[in-house]
Amino acid sequence: MASEYWLAPSSIEQWWSSPSQKDIKRPYSTDTVASLRDVFPENHHSNAMALKLRNIFEKVQNDKLVNLTTSVIDPVTAQVMAEVGFETLYVSGGMSANTDTATDDPGPDLADYTYDTVPKKVTTIYRSQLLHSRTARVNGTGKHDLPLLPIIADADSGHGQHTAIMKLVKLFVQSGVSGFHLDDLVSGVKRHDGKDGLSSVIVPSNEYLKRLVAAKLQLDIMGSEVVLIARTDAETATHITSTIDHRDRPFILGATVELPHHYIHAEGNSGKDEWKREAKLSTLDEAFKNSNPDLYDNFSNQTKDLNVSEALSAARKLDPSFYWNYESPRTSEGWYAYKGGVEAAISRATFAANISDMVWACAHFYNSDVAERFSKGVQNVHPGKWMAYNITGGFPQDGSADNEIKTIPSKLASLGYVWLFLPIGGLTAVGLGSKLAMRAIKDEGLYGYLSQVSRPAAAHHADGTSPEWWWKIMGKLADDAADAIGQGS
Ligand SMILES: C[C@](O)(C(=O)O)[C@H](CC(=O)O)C(=O)O
Ligand SMILES: [Mg+2]
């Protein structure tokens, strides 16, 4: 692409009116994007793959289906997933944390790894797909049609403010990614033991929006078609870092009863639970409506678009004895109590949809009521908006829900979801496959390997998993190069 064209705001304008970009509402201009561009574009791989991903989502949406995938753990899983017919791959932050990180410190999913961890994983998986397709072509195995699968990756909370987010997005585009999700969580504060009644902690709506806009700006700077997925954790959130944004007011909780001490002085888990019970937490609007039903309409009209602090002043002018305290439930970190739920997720998704291609309310278990309400909430405001759904756990092992589980994909498709993924499925599959194979080798030695590992693998034509493929067939590429180099003259 000639650099005059690439750097001309008019060419960016033209691109923004193309089908993949026309629905995005950007708060910045083409001039700004042009001025931030490097002289040459560098996104060929990612763009080709991202357009392929967009086609997949369009097709499933038209056919009223949902694209299902799970996490790819390494190049072998990537090849197997292509062979069995998956159309997309998911690179999970959690699985990257469990298996390898850029700082070589595997561990639980805290999203505390350095921000190049997931892009590096994507690079490895993407390049392994290129290698497999090149190998198949050179060897004439008839598998050169085996598709390169678009990769969707986990960008977590962006790992910092806008400059870090933009660098992360740049790494993703360079990695060959086709889509990524960015969320509204505070980085690195997950608790796995539920201590202090703490689940997800989220940032205010405006900070979330700024993250998404920073990501989109970087994609625009790179002329990238990569799919931006806006994930919100508002459904499971228990706390928020700030009350500054008026859009968060319906979900911020305050004490309606004045207690002798604040939440931070309550001791232990049970003391904290008791404090919350006694404080009778509620949102400002609910509290005012309960204590002043006759004044509520007046209050509500006066305080549209006001945050909790401003609206509380208005409430006190209307009723000087009104008590509602959003400071007293603050945690020792300063976080405010938050009423998570599907309404909160809808509120965030409806504005995130303006700047992203797909919205996703992250929950860890399937809940048909939540899936339906979220879909209605989003589709009422943004008809046809792409939506994602994840199921991490909650699969009953006793068979009691088998029939329901079978119908989930078609239910989600009928609600308009286009992408359904099992974030930990790849890890479970790799673990189970390894356990069965390793058990056979350990218990039955060489014969166990022959009868229960290598022979079934050959029977399944699991090319990517066989040493033959990696050594002999792939080795042909190196041999061809050696022949081409010859004796050097
Ligand atoms: C989807 C997710 O972001 C991931 O990293 O795979 C995780 C999965 C999990 O920890 O359950 C998430 O939902 O936060
Ligand atoms: Mg994650």
TrEMBL record:
The keyword Lyase applies. Its cofactor is Mg(2+). The keyword GTP-binding does not apply. Coiled coil: none annotated. Signal peptide: none annotated. SUPFAM superfamilies: Phosphoenolpyruvate/pyruvate domain. GO terms for biological process: carboxylic acid metabolic process. Mg(2+) binds at D154. Keywords: Lyase, Magnesium, Membrane, Metal-binding, Transmembrane, Transmembrane helix. Can also use Mn(2+) ion. It comes from the Eukaryota. It holds the Pfam family ICL. It catalyses: (2S,3R)-3-hydroxybutane-1,2,3-tricarboxylate = pyruvate + succinate. InterPro entries: ICL/PEPM, Isocitrate_lyase, Pyrv/PenolPyrv_kinase-like_dom, Pyrv_kinase-like_dom_sf. One of its GO terms (molecular function) is isocitrate lyase activity. The chain crosses the membrane at residues 412-432. Belongs to the isocitrate lyase/PEP mutase superfamily. Isocitrate lyase family. This is Isocitrate lyase. It comes from Kwoniella pini CBS 10737. The lineage of its organism: Eukaryota, Fungi, Dikarya, Basidiomycota, Agaricomycotina.
